[in-house]
């Protein structure tokens, strides 16, 4: 079943216009959402739209307002907002192309798949030409879009047989890293520690496989919900053990490079417990031998003596 289009319009490259449908590339169905419930009655909490001093109102009486001063608003109707003429509402005009790695990851916001719209052969052909040209030049096309009253920069790039569009944040939406990190002390790291950290990183290098990462928190929440439904205690969900406090950074790095971990750190303690258990068993074993010997002695003492 084809996904419902989030936006339908055109991508334009100079004089070439490509009809497209844009659909979300992500889903949130696996996430757990909670509702607020009135515990005594078990009913869901509902919210009413009210005006102080007036009470509940009809949704038809609601308009949008922009606050220009405390308690003072410029009112706008949906029709007035819809009449704002912006080409970006229906067309993504590719105005610039940059290298695939030229955009800082902090600007990327949300991904969407771009599909050719309809059965227009010329449109489908133009879609394929744009995809292959971006792939061959290793470039990303930049433009702007307006969706649901929100304007965004967009980056369009090849993705397998199709195209991927990612919305980007505007410059004034991103905090400057330089001011955010001002309070971090300027301290030079120890070279030996850096070498150990680099060695540790190299040991853990691999291909990204999202299947290896599990949302253990959602799994635990779902288990808790099912356990309450079935009137039982929730099963424990295996998770990575919490890291112990690092007292000596160099020692922790060395042990990490050698393969040490929180789990391995528990092995000596486990071996110690097994040793104590074996030692605890030995006295009981001696007790059994001693009681056997005592039994033999007792039997010998009860045996009749031979006549002299």
**Secondary-structure-derived class:** alpha+beta
CATH class of the domain at 7-27 and 64-173: Mainly Beta
Largest sheet: 8 strands, mixed
Order of helices and strands: EEEEEEEEHEEEHEEEHHHHHH
Mean pLDDT: 81
> What's the number of helices?
8
Helical fraction equals: 25-40%
How many extended strands?
14
Low-confidence stretches: 262-308
Shape: extended
Q: How large, in whole angstroms, is the Cα Rg? A: 35 Å
The CATH topology name of the domain at 7-27 and 64-173 reads Ku70, Chain: A, Domain 2
Beta-strand content bin: 25-35%
Distance between the termini: 108 Å
CATH-derived architecture of the domain at 7-27 and 64-173: Beta Barrel
Strand order of the largest sheet: 9-1-2-11-14-13-12-10
Characterise this structure.
It is a single chain. By secondary structure, the protein is of the alpha+beta class. Among the domains are: 7-27 and 64-173, Ku70, Chain: A, Domain 2, CATH 2.40.290; 189-204 and 213-261, no CATH class. It is built from 8 helices and 14 strands. The chain has helices spanning 78-82, 121-137, 177-180, 191-203, 216-229, 249-257, 262-265, 267-302, and strands at 7-13, 16-24, 37-38, 43-44, 50-51, 55-56, 64-69, 72-76, 91-93, 96-99, 108-116, 139-147, 150-159, 162-168. A hairpin with a 3-residue loop joins strand 5 and strand 6 (55-56). Helix 4 packs parallel to helix 6 (249-257). The longest helix has 36 residues, at 267-302. Mean pLDDT is 81; it is low at 262-308.
């Amino acid at each position: 079943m084809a996904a419902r289009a989030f936006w339908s319009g055109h991508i334009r490259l100079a004089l070439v216009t490509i009809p497209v449908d844009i659909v979300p590339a992500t889903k949130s169905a696996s996430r757990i959402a909670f509702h607020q419930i009135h515990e005594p009655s078990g009913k869901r909490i509902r919210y009413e739209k009210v005006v102080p001093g007036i009470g509940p109102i009809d949704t038809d009486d609601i308009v949008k307002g922009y606050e220009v001063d405390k308690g003072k608003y410029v009112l706008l109707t949906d029709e007035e907002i819809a009449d704002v003429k912006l080409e970006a509402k229906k067309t993504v005009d590719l105005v610039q192309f940059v290298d695939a790695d030229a955009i800082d990851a902090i600007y990327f916001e949300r991904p969407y798949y771009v599909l050719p719209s309809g059965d227009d052969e010329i449109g489908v052909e133009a879609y394929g030409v744009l995809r292959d040209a971006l792939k061959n030049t290793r470039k990303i096309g930049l433009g702007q879009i307006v969706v649901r009253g929100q304007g965004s920069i967009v980056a369009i790039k090849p993705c397998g047989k199709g195209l991927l569009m990612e919305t980007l944040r505007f410059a004034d939406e991103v905090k400057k890293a330089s001011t955010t990190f001002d309070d971090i002390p300027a301290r030079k790291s120890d070279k030996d520690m850096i070498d150990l950290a680099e060695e540790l990183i190299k040991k853990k290098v691999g291909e990204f496989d999202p299947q290896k990462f599990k949302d253990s928190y959602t799994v635990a929440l779902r288990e808790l919900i099912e356990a309450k439904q079935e009137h039982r205690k929730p099963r424990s969900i295996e998770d990575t053990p919490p890291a112990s406090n690092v007292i000596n950074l160099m020692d922790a790095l060395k042990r990490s490079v050698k393969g040490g971990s929180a789990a391995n750190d528990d092995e000596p303690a486990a071996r110690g417990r097994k040793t104590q258990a074996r030692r605890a068993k030995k006295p009981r074993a001696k007790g059994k031998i001693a009681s056997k010997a005592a039994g033999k002695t007792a039997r010998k003492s009860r045996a009749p003596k031979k006549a002299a």
